Automatic annotation (TrEMBL):
Family matches, as Pfam families: WRKY
InterPro entries named in the record: WRKY_dom, WRKY_dom_sf, WRKY_plant
Protein name, per record: WRKY domain-containing protein
Lineage: Eukaryota, Viridiplantae, Streptophyta, Embryophyta, Tracheophyta
Domain WRKY: 125-188
Subcellular location: Nucleus
DNA sequence: AGCATTTGACCCAT
DNA sequence: ATGGGTCAAATGCT
């Protein structure tokens, strides 16, 4: 462990915890309809905490130490590993060298993974043409043991042309058939999904269509995304965190986009970040093109990517992971909220987490 | 013709 | 041995 990072990590955790506590206070205040001033103050404090945390993350940069490939996609969300991927890893590579196949498989396994739960409304059922700006191609469907509905497998259309290894799985919920659990793996590296989305067919769709930002510029927008995400109720799921996959699952409440948008206008993160593009970073409800599976995001994939990547970037697995996995094992629940540590871990609010040596 | 989906088979991890 | 994930030929659609 690097001492410098330990210290920053401690501060980071401290800031995050503080932000979480403040958010809880805010929630209480909202429940009790407190004054707007105190609410604003809390919001500012929360934002300040997360900003600090983000700055810590940002200035640390990628961990230079050789790491397992699980975090190679720290900035782009998709591994930029030297592994040679030719898009046809199976039969072709088998002939050439089985090593390649293994590495491809390994790479795929290491892709960050997160899950989004989305609810299908009758409206979206009818619209049927929602798009998240990314182009998916279905490559498989399987009946899953114990699941009522089959699971569908999608990959980025531009896997071969742009070496984009993003995939997603869509699984209809047994309990609530209107809910689709979408598991994403890897972030898009293709330009298509993140360039300006083609003009929508109707003004209504324009409202739902996101202008996806370019992945290459993701870094600039990460902070905005994260702040916005947090402000709108970030949920972190550990689905898939089976102690091998490090990427936490980020789930955003399926709030209506109208609400998100209107709220966002008043969101000003202390002037440090230009949030003028935040609106554009959100993806609309969508339906996978030409598929029978309905799904839509409540928040853009890139947002979830970004946050997961931020947490992964530095591979400071120990503490954040520790917090998460500890709870996972304690509850044995596949899904849990990020706010668990504050409920289950007794923290002295006055404790100085950035005390040198605390995390070493 | 070109692209997407379907679906049985295969591979791999457990 | 089994289940999940992926491939790729067959088929469908535009």
């Amino acid at each position: 462990m690097e001492h410098g990072w330990n210290w920053k990590q401690g501060t980071l955790v401290s800031e995050l915890i503080q932000g979480m506590e403040l958010a809880k206070q805010l929630r209480l205040q909202l429940d009790s309809a407190s004054s707007a001033e105190s609410t604003d103050l809390l919001v500012q404090k929360i934002l300040s905490s997360y900003e600090k945390a983000l700055l810590i993350l940002k200035f640390n940069g990628p961990v230079p130490v050789a790491q397992p490939q699980q975090n190679v996609g720290a900035t782009s969300g998709v591994p930029e590993s030297p592994l040679s991927i030719n898009g046809s890893p199976r039969s072709d590579d088998l002939d050439k060298d089985s090593q390649d196949t293994r590495e491809v498989s390994k790479k795929r396994k290491m892709l960050p993974r997160w899950t989004d739960q989305v609810r299908v409304t009758s409206e979206s059922l009818l619209e049927g043409t929602h798009d998240d700006g990314f182009s998916w191609r279905k490559y498989g469907q399987k009946d899953i043991l114990g699941a009522k509905y089959p699971r569908s497998y999608y990959r980025c259309t531009y896997r071969h042309t742009q070496d984009c290894w993003a995939t997603k799985q869509v699984q209809r919920s047994d309990e609530d058939p209107t809910i689709f659990e979408i598991t994403y793996r890897g972030a898009h590296t293709c330009a298509h999904g993140n360039q300006g989305v083609p003009p929508p067919a109707s003004p209504k769709k324009q409202e739902h269509k996101s202008t996806n930002f370019n992945n290459n510029n993701n870094q600039q927008l990460q902070s905005q995304d994260i702040l916005f995400s947090l402000r709108n109720g970030l949920r972190v799921n550990t689905e898939g965190l089976d102690n091998k996959e490090m990427a936490p699952s980020f789930s955003f409440p399926s709030t209506s986009f109208g609400l998100l948008k209107s709220e966002n206008h008043s969101f000003s993160p202390s002037g440090v970040l230009d949030n003028s593009n935040i609106l554009n970073s959100f993806s609309p409800p969508f339906m996978s093109p030409a598929t029978s599976e309905l799904n839509y995001f409540s928040a853009s994939q890139s947002q979830m990517n970004n946050f997961g990547e931020m947490l992964n970037t530095h591979n400071s697995e120990s503490d954040l992971k520790g917090l998460i996995s500890a709870n996972t094992s304690a509850t044995n629940s596949p899904i849990m909220d990020l706010d668990f540590p504050l409920d289950q871990v007794e923290l002295d609010p006055c404790f100085q987490f950035d005390t040198p040596g605390f995390f070493s």
